[in-house]
Design a protein that fits this description.
Elements lengths: L1 E8 L6 H14 L9 E4 L8 H15 L4 E5 L2 H4 L3 H13 L2 E5 L15 H41 L3 E2 L3 E2 L4 H12 L5 H8 L3 H15 L1
Parallel strand pairs: 1-2, 1-3, 3-4
Antiparallel strand pairs: 5-6
Helix pairs in contact: 4-5
């Protein structure tokens, strides 16, 4: 049996080290030796277009074609993927190719099932599939909740006038700009003076001018 391990995190709010330690602790406890160092990605879990995962998948399928038995270890199902349909499709493909999946957070996947089709094995396999689908649903729900919070946060900033240029935070508070732009209108300052003083690029300055005119003319 050849063992592989994979861990994915987002690029912002999570750390690879913690997941790697969890995997190392797990394989030490189970006396498992990995065939390859842990494959890792810092990418979105919305799809499987990830460099290390694609490399892992290619290697696992190669070993299967060489007649080896292969097991993949992940700490949590959402470390594999967050999109329910895509994740379940990926898992079904693994199963069809004879790749066993161990999910640390799902204890029933830790036990290798015998190859025969006895009732006990069939029941355990059914339980595993049900639990995997349930955890995939949780991961999908969490992704949707995160996206919803992000969308609502951006809209709230736009409603308050704190979001500019379709997604970029404002370079400067609009009221602050207006105060100095009034001095340009009164000829007390030149546009370049305002750009220098407020550290604005020319395109940003004139974007603020356009907004000022739309609101005041």
């Amino acid at each position: 049996m050849l063992y592989f391990a994979y861990h994915r995190t987002s690029t912002k709010d999570q750390h690879l080290d913690r997941g790697i330690k969890e995997i190392n602790d797990f394989i030490t406890e189970k006396n498992i030796k990995l065939h390859h160092s842990i494959y890792t990605d810092q990418c979105t879990g919305k799809n499987f277009n990830r460099p290390s995962y694609k490399e892992l998948k290619t290697e696992m399928l190669f070993q299967i074609n060489q007649g080896e038995k292969v097991t993949l270890i992940v700490t949590e199902l959402d470390r594999l993927g967050r999109n329910k349909q895509l994740t379940l499709k990926e898992i079904r493909e693994m199963q069809n190719n004879g790749i066993r999946l161990i999910v640390k957070e799902i204890p029933t996947t830790h036990t290798e099932l015998p190859n025969d089709n006895n009732i006990a094995s069939m029941i355990m396999e059914t339980i595993n599939n049900m639990l995997i689908e349930m955890y995939a649903s949780f991961a999908q729900a969490e992704l949707e909740k995160k996206d919803k919070r992000q969308t609502e946060g951006i809209q709230a900033k736009k409603d308050r006038g704190e979001w500019d240029d379709y997604g970029r935070p404002r370079a400067l508070d609009f009221k602050e700009f207006s105060k100095y732009y009034k001095l340009v209108l009164s000829k007390d300052l030149r546009p370049k003076d305002v750009m220098d003083k407020l550290n604005l690029t020319k395109p940003t300055y004139y974007r603020y001018v356009k907004e000022y005119n739309e609101k005041n003319l």
